[in-house]
Amino acid sequence: MPTSHFSSFVDIPVPSLPFLFSQRATWLYTTAALVGALLVLEQSIYRYKKKHLPGAAWTIPIIGKFADSMKPTMENYMAQWNSGELSAVSVFNIFIVMASSNHYSRKILNTPTHAEPCLVNSAKHILMPDNWVFLTGKEHIEYRRILNTLFTKKALSIYIGVQDAITRKHFRQWLADAAKDPSPKPIMMTARNLNMDASVRVFCGNHIPESGVVEISEKYWDITQALQLVNFPFAFPGTNVYKAIQARKAAFKWLEMAAAKAKIAIASGAQPHCMLDEWVQVLQDPTYKGRKDFSDREMAMVVFSFLFASQDAMSSGLIYGFQHLSDHPEILAKIREEQYRVRGNDINKPITLEMLESMPYLKAFVKESLRVKPPVTMVPYRATKPFPLSDNYTAPAGSMVIPSFYNSLHDPEVFPDHDSLTPERWLDPNSPANANPKNYLVFGSGPHRCIGIEYATMNMALVLATASILMDWEHHQTAESDKVEIIATLFPKDGCQLKFTPRPRPQSA
Ligand code: HEM
To answer: Which residue positions does the secretion signal occupy (predicted)?
Structure first.
């Protein structure tokens, strides 16, 4: 290079005006360099954590797979699950390891020393940070031991009577509404309201007036909206989380009052007729050795956690139950045959726990319907320390580890013809389904396994069985009926449009 030419170039006098400009340029270059370095660092950290796991080689800067998580689809989830038994993804720099196989999903659920449930960000705002659901380890085990006493056979036999009465009340209303307007209607909201009414009455009995149940039911939709995986993180007025907090406050007013009333009722010698009564009675039992000092607020928080954990999943299960029965008339016919037989054709007889025990086909149907369309497809956990998931992969501390259930529940080895709805697979004690109970992850596994399994399956069985003898229903199939909408849990995209008519009584009744 001719040095003379070069030196003459640098000798050119610098005009004074660009001084400011050059300062700004320096600032811009520095900022750009810094941002560039951060972006490179982001990619490097992602790739370092991901190691050899399947998943995008690069993460979208800053937001990662945020767009996908805003509008989750079964297709995207399935692509991720099928990409490997363990795979990686990043959303807003949260590093996530998805487990799709039975082995790895169960490992996450059953290793409390390395991972604990990580509810969506909004949950702490809505449920309140001192709610029992955020407990872990020994404290959690002890609290759950107390709560298990609310789901004994004795307790369930109180609840089933309440559920039966509420269900029949709602069906009368469904039929009255259908008589006024016989066009098919989505059952998204009607089924939710039935569940909410039944649950509030099972948990709180008549300690809450009708207006309170209606208020809790109506406001509850705001809570569901705030349960989405991704929500605006701050509770500013107008946001979903803010609305959910207002809904919780309204519900709490009623639930605390119900706890106080249950204490008074049992102290005055009344027999338990709801969960809160049962709880107070258990605490007073001289043989009960656990903690006794539960405040009204604490009891309200537990009931609220049950509503929170149950409402969506149970509604999803029930709606798919109705859809599956209308799309499989041969299965519905078998359920009806069993109902008339066990009830001796008396359709007004309230169902009891003993009667349910004599309805194996109904129970098999509920189990199978939940398998084919599991309401909860995955549960987010967080690695509390480096978590050696496999021989050659350790999830870094702080990363999200998400066990997913769909592949376990649709494993063709365990469930031949896995997409077909076949209740019979549960009736054969030697079937691969019964031989592999570890695959049935509908309610999770390990220390945080769903506490409401018996209550939820009893409710679904009762509602569908009672519907089958009191009503006929036709499914208005649309292009969206078989498509899945994910609103925290799974729903048919068109809301399952049904047309109800009263069913004639059986001949000998
Ligand atoms: C079809 C209905 C339901 C389904 C599919 C379902 C599913 C689940 C699943 C997958 C989990 C997480 C389990 C884990 O992490 O291993 C869970 C937890 C839980 N469920 Fe359910 N659930 C249902 C109904 C209910 C009902 C009716 C109640 C209350 C009465 C309830 C209360 C809870 C609670 C409190 C937890 C957290 C337990 C803990 O952390 O110890 N669920 N449920």
So the answer is: none
Q: Is the CB of 308 under 6 A from ligand 1?
A: no
Q: Which residues pair with 484 in a beta bridge?
A: 492
Mutate to test the pocket of ligand 1, among 159, 443, 453 (most ligand atoms within 8 A of CB): 443
Could you write out the three-class secondary structure of 450-507?
A: CCCHHHHHHHHHHHHHHHHHHEEEEECCCCCCCCEEEECEEEECCCCEEEEEECCCCC
Q: CA–CA separation, 499 vs 377, rounded Å?
A: 29
Identify each DSSP E strand in 326-377 by its residue range: none
| Rounded CA separation 248/215 (Å) | 11
CA 451 – ligand 1 centroid, Å: 6
Residue 446 gets the label, from left (phi > 0), alpha (psi -120 to 50) or beta, of left
Rounded Cα gap, residues 421 and 118, in angstroms: 32
**DSSP 8-state assignment for residue 285:** -
Neighbours of 3 (CB within 10 A): 7
Instruction: Go through the domains of the chain in sequence order and give each one's CATH number.
Output: 66-502 (1.10.630.10)
The one-letter amino acid at 281: Q
Is 496 annotated for ligand binding?
A: no
d(Cα 192, Cα 316) in Å, to the nearest integer? 9
| Sign of torsion over alpha carbons 292, 293, 294, 296 | positive
Model pTM score: 0.90
162, 274, 464 from 459: Cα distances, Å: 10, 15, 9
Closest CA to 318 of 220, 196, 418, 447: 196
What are the backbone dihedrals phi and psi of residue 34, each rounded to the nearest 5 degrees, phi first? -65, -45
Three-class DSSP category at 378: strand
Q: Which two tokens stand for residue 266?
A: 């049992």
- Rounded CA-CA distance 63/90 in Å is 8
Residues paired with residue 492 on neighbouring β-strands, in sequence order:
484
Alpha carbon nearest to ligand 1 atom 43, residue? 450
Residue 380 near ligand 1, beta carbon < 6 Å: no
| Token reading at 429 | 């004690």
CB 427 within 8 A of CB 361: yes
Residue 388 pairs in a beta bridge with 394
Tell me the residue length of the chain: 509
pLDDT along the chain (509 residues), means of 10: 36 50 77 78 72 74 63 85 91 87 98 90 82 93 95 96 97 98 95 94 96 90 71 69 89 96 96 97 89 93 92 94 98 98 95 97 98 96 96 94 97 97 97 98 97 97 98 96 89 96 84
